[in-house]
Amino acid sequence: MSLLLNHAIGWFSYLERGPVLAQLLLPLVALLVGHSLNALPRGRVPRRLRQAPWLLEAGLMALGLALLTLLGQPIRLALQVTSLYLLWLGLGLIRRLLARMLKPTLVHRLDTRLLRPSYLVVSVLCLISWVDNLQVLSTIPLGRWFGVSVSLGGLLISCLVIYGLLVGSGVLASALAWILQKGFALQDDNRRAVTLILRYAVVALGITLLFDQIGFNATALVAIAGGLSVGLGFGIKEVFSNFISGLWLLFEGSVRPGDVLFLDGDPCEVRSLGLRAAVLWRDRDNAELVIPNQTFFTNTTITYTGSDRLRRSEILIGVAYRHDPDEVIQHLVASALGSPGVLPEPVPRVYVVSYDDSAIRYSLRFWIDNPMNNLSISSAVRQTIWRDFEAHGIEIPFPQHVIHRPPAR
Amino acid sequence: MLVALLALVSSGCQGRDPDEDSGTLHVLIGTPSNEALTAESVDTDLGEFKTLIDGFRELHPGVTLTFAIFQESHLEGELQRRNAAGLAPDLVMLTAARAVQLERQHLLRPVTIPAEDLQQLEMQGLTRVALGNRHYAGVPVLQEPQLACFNRRRLPDPPQTVEELLEMAHGGAAFGLAVEPAHLFWSAGSLGAGPAVLAALEHQPLSPQDRSRIIAWLRWLQTRNLQQEISFLPDKDHLVNQLARKQLDWIPCRCGNIALLRRHLGDRLGVAPLPGGPGGAASPITRQLVWGFGLNSSPRQHQLADQLVRFSINPLTQRTVTLTTLAVLPANRLALPSAGTSSVVDVLLQSQKMGMTGHRFSRLAAEDSQRFASLRALLVGVIFGELTPEQATDRLIRWGASER
């Protein structure tokens, strides 16, 4: 580590040289001046310059570079720093281009997980390569881990590979799962589960191969894993329990991304099943609920998507005593079938449930194919029933209380 | 902004108090290896300088020394890039021939050497970096003579002559040679072709005897490739690696390889002068290491660089480095160890004395030069039977005539 520190001190000590500092500050000052234009009052800056501050930045850069050249000073560092800035601007253009083709969430994910980290790594490596030999730096030993001498380059490559696995395995797993779905005619929710399992498998396999490539001693790893398991038992057992629960749920298939669960009286869709917790989306208020995996493992779970995605909905309605129940039942079934979202099969059914004080109570039971739409479809059915009853003079009685008072004596 | 730029550019001229014992010195070290650098090779390359640097650090604890190692073949590009950015190192450790080449390309600063230092430095080393007008491309620091490295277990007594080398090869010992002109030139001396080859490279007219000596040398090389126990490998790095892995028993090596080989072979490593032959002693090439000066140093860094260089060539430092590493010889005549100091030093001294013609060869066919590449192609052609020794000799003579 002291060797690395020595190198790092060397990089920064180039700043002691006036020409080096001048080359680094030149693009910085040009940028600051360009950006500060917006802070000035409108009248004091020409409109064209305000719209394109890069004109001023480029002008200042050119002026500074010309001056340095006239003074016989080096300028390549300033050009290199400027090229890094231009690369950053190019990244912005790529983002805009992607935004036209992809969904905003996907663009954001690509930007934060791939474009910006790549830019950061490339820039840092570029900066270091200007003042040092990357090949030699990569050989700096960091110590012996698991019986293997680990170098700085090895560690950096391992980190990049692991990061690549975590970020890129999603795409790979999705592609594999899509192929499996096509091959085995899997349902969408099964495909999602397969995707997640494949992703864990790709990451685990990748890390195992990486450790093998580095040459980590497998016996030492097993011994450490054994020691950790004791620690896990006491220290972070909740995290571990959630992780295992998540894997178990995936294999069992009881909770999978895309499933609809009934939680506190509300249907919620499983958005993702993570290492520690599942994220559920509640339609009622567009809330996202983060539920630890072991909750599903230890508590009763009500799901509408276990074997199929059908849900049977029920509407209770009271109709006046004077109407023939057969006629009412026909109207209710017709109303249900005429409402959007109600499945014709299984056929809606109506039952006489009770004789109440002012009405006969009927139960209309019909099937829908998306459990999350229960409320909207039920609402649509109720509206159709009202219009149908209104058209045919069928009364939905309002409970009335008649009070008889004995005549005064 | 312009005023600020001017101030910054000139800030290097003001610097800090010159008496203050602090500052940073950027040192770039050229390594002859063509293979990818590894932790082991970097450690070996730095090994010779550690003693030197540690002594300087003790004297100047406030001075920070930073090192970057590059393959010598990459130095030109690296210095061009760094000079254009103001990031050139303050000092570069490289071979004399390379220093001259880089100075001619204005990538290094020519230096003048104080009279008292000039008197102490080996004349051979100074000649190799002399530019004329009392200017030099660098300051000679250390010498690395070429010698023979072998495995004592397999070869208790190394060959003294090329004939013995053949006998031992017949006896089952594995010998290795690299198809590199500078690496094979020692055998030209053993077979009496050294002066003739140099004359050809210097474009001098050759006598029929000279021609037949060159033919005899090339024929010897061609015939050796037909022997099972003598292997020709692409470069010296392969040779060193194979001796370290005990796949070879004897190779020509540089004393810079001794540390790495000692790590692998331990006491089994033996060193000896390269074998002579019917034509006389071998003509090994001594690698002359020099300090070159960078172009972008601030006045303070110039001063520190001068201090480090003068410290490096100080007789006491030179003797310490020689005796600590037992792998290099000093450039300072006053620091040359006497014969009998150690067996390794004796071998180094013998090899250095044999290397007079080698100096001329390395100047005439510097690595990376067009002539070096042509000579290499010619040797490859002969060794692998594509050219007869006569054809190759005629081609070598024709180059001289066409360049004359």
Largest Cβ-defined interface: A-B, 42 and 34 residues
Helical residues, percent of chain A: 55-70%
Strand content of chain B: 15-25%
**Shape annotation of chain B:** globular
Structural class of chain A: alpha+beta
Low-confidence stretches of chain B: 8-16
Shape of chain A: elongated
Distance between the termini of chain B: 56 Å
Largest sheet of chain A: 5 strands, antiparallel
Round the Cα radius of gyration of chain B to an integer and report it: 22 Å
Treating each run of at least 4 consecutive H or I residues as one helix, how many helices of chain B? 18
Count of DSSP strands of chain B: 13
Q: How many H/I helical runs of chain A?
A: 14
What is the subunit organization of this protein?
A: heterodimer
Q: What does the average pLDDT of chain B come to?
A: 85
Strand order, main sheet of chain A: write it out.
6-5-4-3-7
**Content-based structural category of chain B:** alpha/beta
Kindly state the mean pLDDT of chain A as a whole number? 85
Helix content bin of chain B: 40-55%
Characterize the main sheet of chain B: 6 strands, mixed
